[in-house]
Design goal:
Strand 2 (80-86) and strand 3 form a beta hairpin. Helix 1 runs antiparallel to helix 2 (47-60). The protein has 361 residues and is of the alpha+beta class. An eight-stranded mixed β-sheet has the order 4-3-2-8-7-1-13-14. A four-stranded antiparallel β-sheet has the order 9-10-11-12, covered by helices on one side. It has eleven helices and 14 strands. Helices cover 33% and strands 21% of the residues. Residues 136-144, 147-163, 193-214 and 218-228 have low confidence and may be disordered. Keywords: Autocatalytic cleavage, Hydrolase, Protease. This is beta-aspartyl-peptidase.
Length: 361
């Protein structure tokens, strides 16, 4: 092994009824992200820049549950969350309750790079975003470069102020499809599982397809269905540096103020000198298991290889019955994944030319 490697995911826990055309669309999006990341890594990009770049790509495309196309709260609004972590120095940034930032992962990076904190939420995060988006100091680009950000970050998707924090109205994130699915969820009094399934699989009156018992629980309480389409990316660059980023809109019909695993360092995201990990699935179970850190700790303390560590975390610990998926890379250029759900949208690529996208086992 050795050289760069990259993996992306679009959520674990895929409804087996997902139409073939949507499966193909998901694979095309993941493959496009891999190609963009591979091109950047071949040009010498650093891991932290690539994970931000690709999660931005996934946030901007409405297919998965992050950025535009995020799941809606019970009030019909969008509250997003994201995190990013740089393995070599274990610096990290995270945000929750984001309602106006086009790319939450970039705000998380600005928290890491340009604030004294690691995590900002709700109004504090929004205020910080306004500061970043409106800061017109002509020396800002110099500050970015002095902080070690590469041309890929500054040149790809940054606003005219050089920040990458673009503010939009909350309506930007809301799609007609999600409004329809929120209505169905409310009629079913449910938190929705794979809400991207075509609406002809369930009637407006919420037929059997919406009310079957999945056996999934959150904190010991049964829920009808669950929405896991979080996005994430992990990268090891040509120097052996690892980074991870994760972003989500959370659960369809969730309570306002709910925070999942995605912005929690050590739960949904983790990176160190050994590896980088991004998780997806049942957030409450991932939080309890500190799943991302668990993979890294198993490698560090038990001496297991990357895939073995993932298998141990997912299949032997069993996550207290929770359903989850993991993608990871190691400093040695390994790439691995695992899940205990019906499927996981994922893709990976390595320097030796290997590239793969998949959904099912």
């Amino acid at each position: 092994m050795g050289g760069w490697a990259i993996a992306v995911h679009g959520g674990a826990g895929v409804d087996p009824r997902l139409p073939e055309e949507r499966q193909a669309a998901a694979k095309r999006l993941l493959a496009r992200c891999l190609e963009i990341g591979a091109d950047a890594l071949r040009s010498g990009a650093m891991a932290i820049d690539v994970v931000e770049m690709l999660v931005r790509e996934l946030e901007t495309d409405p297919f998965f549950n992050s950025g535009r196309g995020s799941a809606l709260t019970a009030r019909g609004t969008v509250e997003m969350e994201a995190s990013i972590m740089n393995g070599p120095d274990r610096r990290c940034g995270a945000v929750s309750g984001i309602t106006t930032v086009k790319n939450p992962v970039s705000l998380a990076r600005r928290v890491m790079e340009f604030s004294p904190h690691s995590y900002l939420a709700f109004q504090g995060a929004e205020d910080f975003a306004i500061e970043q988006a409106s800061y017109e100091n002509p020396f800002m680009l110099d500050r970015l470069f002095n902080a070690g950000l590469s041309k890929w970050t500054v040149g790809d998707g940054f606003t005219k102020n050089g920040h990458g924090v673009e503010l939009v109205e909350n309506e930007y994130f809301i799609t007609d499809e999600n409004l329809t699915m929120l209505k169905l969820a409310k009629e079913a009094n449910a938190i929705l599982f794979d809400y991207r399934v075509a609406t002809d699989t369930c009637s407006a009156s919420v037929g059997p397809a919406m009310s079957f018992d999945t056996g999934i629980q959150m904190n010991g309480l049964p829920i009808t269905v669950y929405a896991p389409e979080t996005v994430g990316c992990v990268v090891v660059d040509s120097t052996g540096g690892c980074a991870a980023a994760t972003s989500t809109g959370g659960l369809m019909n969730k309570k306002c103020g709910r925070i999942g695993d995605s912005p929690l360092i050590g739960a949904g995201t983790y990176a160190c000198d050994l590896c980088a990990v991004s998780c997806t699935g049942e957030g409450e179970a991932i939080i309890r298991a500190t799943l991302a850190r668990d993979v890294a700790a198993i490698m560090e303390y038990k001496g297991l290889a990357l895939q073995e560590a993932i298998n141990y975390s997912i299949k032997e610990r069993l996550l207290d019955g929770g359903k989850a998926g993991v993608i990871a890379v190691s400093k040695d250029g390994e790439v691995a994944y695992g899940f205990n759900s019906n499927g996981m949208f994922r893709g990976c690529a390595t320097e030796d030319g290997f590239m793969e996208v998949g959904i099912w086992e």
